[in-house]
Design a protein that fits this description.
Layout: H1 3-38, H2 43-101, H3 106-131, H4 142-163, H5 195-214
């Protein structure tokens, strides 16, 4: 028989034994009720009922053991059937993989993977070139540009210095030697000549008189 047929037979046997269990349990309850009913009044009938009850209980225990054995066998057969189906399907899959790989050449696969890698590298280089910062205007030397910028700043600084106006130099002469200045009195309304200036003017007049007299 096939595994499916054997499993079906085992399930039928389990069902039959389960019904026999129910029948025996019912008979045990009935014989126990008869033993109680007769009791000591009809000792012989009561003992017969208890004997039948014992036989039914023995059969019930045998059926319990048989059901356990059948259940174990059924589970083992189910597992075997499952393993068989698994192995069969794995065999089908292996044959299918073998058929698929018949048209595959490892050398061609290596060449194909190498081509794919090279194209990926090219694509990455193109992406990097497109996304990189533009170099327009970067061909000038940065040091030269900085030097030119410093020259412009220095020109602006020199221009600012030329625009600064210094105070004019006073027209009056400073004293010939340092010392105490003559006590001259200056005010905003009137300027009084100091005594040294008057003395110089008198000396000049005297010299003019002497020169006129000598001539």
């Amino acid at each position: 028989p096939s595994p499916q047929e054997a499993l079906a037979r085992l399930r039928e046997t389990e069902e039959m034994l389960s019904k026999k269990q129910e029948y025996l349990e019912t008979r045990i309850e009935r014989e126990l009720a008869l033993a109680r009913q007769h009791g000591t009044r009809n000792k012989r009938a009561a003992l017969q009922a208890l004997k039948r009850k014992k036989r039914y209980e023995k059969q019930l225990n045998q059926i319990d053991g048989t059901l356990s054995t059948i259940e174990f066998q059924r589970e083992a057969l189910e597992n075997s059937h499952t393993n068989t189906e698994v192995l069969k399907n794995m065999g089908y899959a292996a044959q299918a993989m073998k058929k698929v790989h018949e048209n595959m050449d490892l050398n061609k696969i290596d060449d194909l993977m190498q081509d794919i890698t090279e194209q990926q590298d090219v694509a990455q280089e193109i992406s990097d070139a497109i996304s990189s910062r533009g170099t327009f205007g970067d061909e000038f030397d940065e040091d030269e540009l900085m030097a030119e910028l410093e020259e412009l700043e220095q020109e602006e600084l020199n221009k600012g210095m030329r625009d600064v106006r210094l105070p004019s130099v006073p027209s009056t002469s400073l004293p010939s030697r340092p010392g105490k200045m003559p006590a001259c009195h200056f005010t905003f309304l009137m300027i009084k000549p100091c005594s040294s200036t008057r003395k110089r003017a008198e000396d000049e007049d005297e010299m003019k008189k002497l020169a006129a007299w000598a001539s």
